């Protein structure tokens, strides 16, 4: 499955637009990640726990997106947009939302 942020796939022609597809993933941020992130804020460096959580959420959202596109018989998803949000009471959740257009290619 080709997934791209562009509105076309180089060297291929879009023959049919199948509709919008989306993938979402929401992950909780636990107290240990918060603690280690606070330490990183003080001493500097990257917050690995948060990075891992975002990476996992992004991969799950892309898998959800491609599964939805396959169900429509798509060869690709074009015009993909990835958004990140912080949700929940005291910002305890991270959400990744991915949207695009499922298409068939020649």
User: How much of the residues is beta strand, in percent?
Assistant: 35-45%
The N- and C-terminal alpha carbons lie at a distance of: 14 Å
What is the radius of gyration? Answer: 17 Å
Query: What is the global morphology?
Result: elongated
CATH topology: Translation Initiation Factor IF3
By CATH's scheme, which homologous superfamily applies? Hypothetical protein apc22750. Chain B
Flag low-confidence runs: none
Sketch the major β-sheet.
4 strands, mixed
Adjacency order of strands in the biggest sheet:
1-3-4-2
Family: Belongs to the UPF0145 family.
Organism: Azospirillum griseum
Pfam family, one: YbjQ_1
Protein name: UPF0145 protein EJ903_06220
Task: Please outline the helices and strands.
Elements (H helix, E strand, L loop, with lengths): L1 E2 L10 E15 L2 H13 L4 H24 L4 E12 L5 E13 L1
Parallel strand pairs: 1-3
Antiparallel strand pairs: 2-4, 3-4
